[in-house]
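Write out the 3D structure for:
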Amino acid sequence: MASLPKRIMKETERLQSEPVPGISAVPSDSNARLFSVVIIGPEESPYATGRFKLELFLPEDYPMAPPKVRFLTRIYHPNIDRLGRICLDILKDKWSPALQIRTVLLSIQALLSAPNPDDPLNNEAAELWKNNEPRAMQTARDWTKQYAQQ
């Protein structure tokens, strides 16, 4: 871990000492830039009963470039595609070096509570969300039961 930039070491220590409610992020033993993340589905969302596994990777140019994050657990969501890629502005053009790993994880957790069908990665889910939100929410609950529960 000594070869890591001080900022990454500090952020990692803070994630361990002050965990974010509903989120765990643990660095890999073999690569301290790679984190195993678990996000508990937020209450009052169709994901509330789920445990979603993600991976977060800090590229060499972090914090000048955003972390790379993707869902490993299948999820029915308009802003997450079948490969687990996430459509979130702070992971792309709205990234700022002032943001941190915990900010990114909190933003992803918030995205589960407030899907944005107007900026989709999963067009099918986005259409259903726009045209029949109750059915979209039920499909999200069904997928959560099927894929995100131990």
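The two ends are 32 Å apart (CA to CA).
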